[in-house]
Specification:
8-stranded antiparallel β-barrel, 4 helices, 298 residues, OMP-like, Bll7405 protein, 10 strands, rod-shaped, mainly beta, Porin, signal
Length: 298
């Protein structure tokens, strides 16, 4: 029995000495799972960056010359019938864009709110169109004529219009989500664009007066119409041109994007932006921008 106790005591001493010589393994400190934990990128802070991309421009010229025709036909019986004539349609063009952005993020857990200002320069984003329309206006409201006279105004309008968007600034509010190294976001805000807009119209107006007479011959009633020769109306036959350079147009913007953290504060972004400007000289411009960018968060 004393021999068994002696053997057990020897083995216990050897085991204790061997355990003292073993390295301090992480599992013994409860750190085995540390290497498996998910790292998180902090998006809070100020940032700056540059971007570039592609712009699709849709310019609506349908009402561009209305202001000019209203001036030509002012105080005349032709102003009301021609007030909403559409001479031209929507025209599309494409170009490249370059710009920069600066902003600030505030993060609460996974939610991110931000405020961002952007500048965009457009490379030759211009479009030009023309159109014509003719119509015979018969006895327009307010026209004074004899009861047996029919006034026929033959009106022909020919117009041209052009618009060039030079650059734009925006102030956008952002809402994002912390996806680790990715941050998808949506934004909406105000936009101010600088553009050159021009328009011109030429009107040609002729008046033909037809006279209708009714006579009774042998108990029968005969009606005859004498067609007059067209006569030019100089007061409404003229040309008007208007141009505005570096005109400012206000509007709104909205879109979606995603940012990816490349390393430390360096990040890349991809975004789509929709911009709608208020009309300048009855010319409305809409932009669709696709961009890629590179920025740094401090």
């Amino acid at each position: 029995m004393r021999r068994l106790w002696l053997v057990a005591a020897v083995f216990g001493s050897v085991s204790a000495a061997h355990a003292a010589d073993m390295p301090d393994l992480p599992v013994l400190r409860g750190g085995f799972t540390d290497g498996l934990s998910k790292t998180s990128h902090r998006w809070d802070g100020a940032y700056v960056g540059v971007n570039g991309g592609y712009t699709a421009d849709a310019t609506d010229f349908s009402q561009s010359v209305v202001g000019l025709t209203n001036f030509i036909f002012r105080d005349s019986v032709l102003q009301q019938p021609t007030a909403n004539w559409s001479l031209m349609n929507k025209t599309n063009t494409q170009s490249t864009n370059f710009g920069a952005f600066v902003g600030r993020n505030w993060q609460w857990y996974d939610a991110i709110l931000g405020l961002e200002g952007t500048y965009s320069y457009f490379n030759n984003l211009s479009t030009l169109t023309s159109g014509t329309n003719s119509l015979t206006i018969v006895n327009p409201p307010g026209d004074a004529h004899a009861a047996n006279v029919t006034d026929n105004y033959d009106v022909t309008l020919t117009g041209t219009a052009a618009a060039k968007v030079k650059d734009m600034i925006t102030l956008r509010g952002r809402v994002g989500w912390d996806g680790g190294d990715f941050m998808p976001y949506a934004f909406m805000g105000a936009a101010v664009g600088r553009m050159d807009v021009s328009r011109s119209v030429t009107s040609i107006v002729d008046l033909r007066q037809d006279v209708t007479n009714t006579i009774v011959v042998g108990g029968a009633t005969l009606t005859t119409t004498t067609f007059g020769a067209p006569q030019a109306v100089p007061a409404q036959s003229q040309s008007q041109t208007q141009r505005r350079t570096n005109a400012f147009a206000v509007g709104w913007t909205a879109g979606l994007g995603v940012e990816y953290c490349i390393w430390d504060g360096l990040f890349a972004r991809v975004e789509y932006e929709y911009v709608k400007f208020s009309p300048v000289m009855n010319t409305s411009v809409t932009l669709n921008n696709a961009r890629v960018g590179l920025g740094y968060k401090f």
